[in-house]
Amino acid sequence: MRREQRALGAVPKALWAVLAVALAAQVAWQARELPRAPAASELPPPPSVHGLRLASFGEPEAVARLVALYVQSFDLGGTNSLPYQKLDYGRLVAWLRRILELDPRSQYPLFLAARVYAENPDPVRARLALDFVYQQFLIDPNRRWPWLAHAALTAKHQLADLPLARRYASAVQRYATAADVPLWAKQMELFILEDMNELDAARIMLGGMLESGMVQDPAELRFLRQRLQELEARIGAAK
Amino acid sequence: MLAANLARLVLIEARRGALPWLAGASLLFGLCIAAFLSQVALTESRALQLTIVAAVLRACAVFLVAAHVSNSVLREINDKGLELMLSLPLTRGAQYLGRLAGFAICAAALAVLFALPLLFWARPAAVALWALSLALETALIAAATLFFAMSLAQLVPAIAAIAGLYLLARSMASIQAIANGPLAEPSAVHDVARWAVEGVGLLLPSLDMVTRTEWLLYGPPDAQHYLAGLAGLGIYGALVTAAGMFDFQRSNF
Fold this sequence. Notes:
The structure holds 2 protein chains of 2 kinds. Chain A is an all-alpha fold. Chain A has a domain of 118 residues. Chain B is mostly helical. The two termini of chain B are 24 Å apart. Chains A and B meet through helix 2, helix 3 and helix 5 of A and helix 3, helix 7 and helix 9 of B.
């Protein structure tokens, strides 16, 4: 591997100078003021899923995550003080959908939609992100229910939209049927009904859950029965 | 026996050359880029590291094997070492297969080395299946590169040919999906293009079906699909080996 080399002194001095000047020029060129990151509204339309698959050369899972990083970091380097506030959410949702089409089992785009983009103070944009989570939940409920459960909480606490929160919670209760879906997720609708003062509906739902036998844990059974009694007492007091 | 000696010579050349250093540099590069990207990930950071390392190391393994085989073969041709070998009492077929065996063992060793870091993130069974698949994939690349290097006898055309074959084989399923998509206007030109794509697809291995990152992420594949993928590699390996031996028998050096 080793080649015989002449001493450094054999190199002409002019060539040393040329090398030094070229190196300095390269460093100076790269160190110049670079243009700032693009504005948030300039998120381009996403490529087609076929185009992305073609560009992935058979590695859709890796490309899905790289695209997620690209979308996530798109607005972080911008000049706006509130990241993502000005982003075109129509395009953003299309990008997130592309990522899921590349790797349907990835949780990354749903995490971004539910935990990052839905927390936008603009309610219109937040609703677009939440609706994306809802639509994608319906495709694979048993894998994606945690994100819709979070979306229900966002709708309740951030948007103060209890009917929307109930819709999401109801979807979790109805479609997420896997054995590993915890009871608290299936009970979300119940608590939202209580918040909406829909006490009769909450009582019927809770009674149905207890009668159906879906609750097996003795501690949970005790808690839910106590909850039912409290509900009935509140309904009685209201009448 | 002489053919086995030839394989041993190929392995000694690989060990004494730059290949081990390049393999180490590839490992370092894959791990560094995964560590960097995982710093900016908000979730699934382990999955991100795994997918990036697996994809980078797969590409590096294929490139290193192709570059090493083509460089080794063409150096032997240019230094007249091949002519010397042909003067030995050994059939051309045995010479070709001996070289191929050496390159295939070298490729398999590289695949095993590149699979080891994946044990940090994925289950051993999935990594073992991935490594076996990569070993066969890189052995196929070695066979195809040997064929191109022997027949084209020039470095750049040989590497360009194997790069084209590999990238086309990895993308063929996507190209066929585009060609058969519902958005294309039905016309004679489109039909001809579609048939051409299907025809090219018949002459390529299904590299998109093997060494899949999803095995590492979501668990091993079912046995039927896995074995079908490996069988496809074996069939294509036999084809390029036969083509290479056919060309080698006819060549004058």
